[in-house]
Amino acid sequence: MSKVTVVGSGLAGSEASIYLAKRGHEVDLIEMRPKFQTGAHKTDYPAELVCSNSLGSLENTSASALLKSEAEILGSSLFPIAKKNSLPAGNSLAVDRIAFCKEVYETVKEYKNINYIVDKYTKIDVSNPVIIATGPLTSSELCQNIKELFNEENFHFYDAVAPIVEKDSIDFSKAFYASRWDKGSADFINCPMNKEEYDNFYNILINAQRAPLKEFEANYFEGCMPIEIIASRGVDTLRFGPMKPVGLFDRRFQTPFKKNQFYAVVQLRQDDKIASMYNLVGFQTNLKWGEQKKLISAIPSLENANILRYGVMHANTFINSPKILNKYLQTRKFKNVFFAGQLTGVEGYCESISTGLLASINMDRYLNNLDMIELDDTTMLGALVEYITFNSHKNFQPVNSNWGIVRSIDDTVKIKDKKLKNQARFNRAITNIKELSNKLNKGV
Ligand SMILES: Cc1cc2nc3c(=O)[nH]c(=O)nc-3n(C[C@H](O)[C@H](O)[C@H](O)COP(=O)(O)OP(=O)(O)OC[C@H]3O[C@@H](n4cnc5c(N)ncnc54)[C@H](O)[C@@H]3O)c2cc1C
Questions:
Q1: CATH annotation of 3-155+318-441
Q2: Which long-range contacts (CB under 8 A, 24 or more apart) does 197-206 make?
Q3: By alpha-carbon position, which residue is closest to atom 13 of ligand 1?
Q4: In the structure, which protein residues have their CB atom closer than 6 angstroms to any atom of ligand 1?
Q5: Structure pTM?
Q6: Fold match, 3-155+318-441 / 164-313
Q7: CATH topology for 164-313?
Q8: pLDDT tens-digit map of 323-361
Q9: Ligand 1 mean position, distance from CA 50 (Å)
């Protein structure tokens, strides 16, 4: 069997290394932490979730659930570990972040053919097989080397993380447990507001001072927009976004329930196994910490909240995949070099894990002189890869799993209901992925 280097033990790199080790390859997994930190990671473990602890929806008609199912069928190791370490979160997959990354670490260590090396990788050795999975916070030396190898100039943008508060400091005379439309169990803590309270909150937010962005020009990804940027687009944008009140009812007081009981709602999601920490959903921010304190105190039920972690903003990095990669996640220029994870221009935990898996499946096949696999846009993973490797993007921007990129169902089957339509696409994708997985298992 061959020797492969995987750079970065994040979500994509850990998934890729375990897959390659299972296939019998000798893997050098090179990770720079804890010797060199990134600014967003807090632990010494691989596969750390740097912000939210949610790996998205589990609902059968959701794009994120489809991606997770596809990856599991294709042999993912990280999604089963996530499920094993899940926390109550309605219909979504939230995990105990420490338990999750510890178990990924233990799994990596179980494989004697994975050599876990703590060091900074700065120059891609194109003469040997390598998967680059260094993520959105790739070290500057390696960025420089990628620029030189692929003649790429600018590949940075911004992402932000949300604050976390201590549960015991929440005022439950105002806050209540519920999930939207009562789907799944009532796992979210909801902090409701009336109009007056919302207007006060909004005024504090739009007048708050932001932390300066030093290195690069601010360029945000729409899916991870700081709350102050959303707010600057209009007084009601938050009420139609992260603070939307629809489908949230305080079952303690109101019977019968009104359709819209509240003017706006801040939702909090469980962040650790013992449910002592909760993150503010959709509240990623770049406000100065003092301003965050003022803003959070203006949320009814969080007036005295103990803030355990403040929101921060970080540079994010992705390559110009439409120019650099083919559909196997292999570089067009150097056949030995593959990319995986957020660095390829997919956005999100599940997307990073799934591309890590695909890159390693194809690396294994490449090394064994087998045809590499090419997924099409009937599957979520195929649609993502098609999107990031599509050649004629003028202004390539990262993408996360969504139904917009998946091929619609044949016109002869007229399905009007959106859920039924997605269910049909979900079923089609699973059938196609299972067929492919059977072929892979037979060694074809
Ligand atoms: C601040 C921030 C918040 C985010 N929040 C969310 C969120 O809430 N939800 C979500 O779905 N997605 C989020 N993302 C996006 C993304 O899904 C995650 O960053 C995800 O962890 C990406 O996985 P990855 O494997 O590509 O990279 P990572 O998980 O970041 O792993 C890359 C690894 O490579 C290492 N590394 C970097 N350079 C080198 C080098 N030169 N040599 C050796 N090792 C190196 C790093 O230390 C790191 O461990 C966020 C991103 C950022 C930056």
A1: 3.50.50.60
A2: 197/263, 197/264, 197/298, 197/300, 198/239, 198/243, 198/263, 198/264, 200/298, 201/264, 201/295, 201/298, 201/299, 202/231, 202/235, 202/238, 204/291, 204/294, 204/295, 204/298, 205/231, 205/295, 206/231, 206/232
A3: 348
A4: 7-13, 30-33, 38, 40-41, 50-52, 120-121, 133-139, 142, 159, 161, 314, 316, 341-343, 348-349, 352
A5: 0.76
A6: no
A7: Elongation Factor Tu (Ef-tu); domain 3 (2.40.30)
A8: 999 999 999 999 999 999 999 999 899 999 999 999 999
A9: 7
